[in-house]
Amino acid sequence: MRRDNVGMKSLVMGCLLLAFCVACSHTYKKQDSFAALTQLVDSAKHDRKEPKQHDIVLPLERMEADELFDDFVFNYAFDKTLQKQRTAFPLPYNKDGHVTQIAENTWKHDSLFAGGNLYTLLFDREKDMDIVGDTALSSVQVEWIFLKTQELKRYYFSRTKGIWMLDSITLHKMHNAESDFLPFYARFVSDSIYQRKHVCSPLSFITIDPDDDFSILETTLDVEQWFAFRPQMPADRLSNICYGQKNDAGSTTKIIKVNGIGNGYSNVLYFRKTYGKWELYKYEDTSI
Are 111 and 86 within one domain? Predict the structure, then answer.
């Protein structure tokens, strides 16, 4: 009887030992499989190439890129595929009152102002500069102001159901009243002797505190210091984006904001007309 019990115990222990070995083997195989899978995923991540900007096609239904006009227009300027998608062909083109249409197959990619390293914005009043970030806009115009030929090229964009589209382009000569400030500016940036006579002294100067990047320093410059600190100012043409601000030909104050494209450059020039004479009275440099 004891011999039978011993045999039975041996049999049970043998079965338990076998089950334990099988379980261990199973666990080891699972661990091996998991490790192999992890290695495969890591390898795929390592080998995967990030898409280039020009490989990305932004779909029409992508609403995030349309919320802020600035986000949309830079995508429009850089992405050839998106530009064709967001242009209403055949596109009306009005040149000095003569209207033609541009077909899709004859359209040439237009980089707008994004083809350079900076662009400009024009305002009459400081408070109008806040309109730039308005997400409720439904109509915006992008402009090229040609200083030498006194011509204005304007791109009309509208947003319908959350989608920005280019609707038309116009090109025409500017009237004298419309360009009152512009002949002054064209001479101001090209003639240093003339410029010297039209810089207020002392000139109000606002910049980032060199000892504290989070603080603004307000001081003044004399004329000689202005020539040492003056920023890059476009001389042949100005770009502008009309978000809804009023650019009144009769305004006695004008603001030119010069923004860099992807380089942190930011300068603002404040002009005023006193006794029939334009002058630069304030300069702001908050470049980072």
Answer: yes
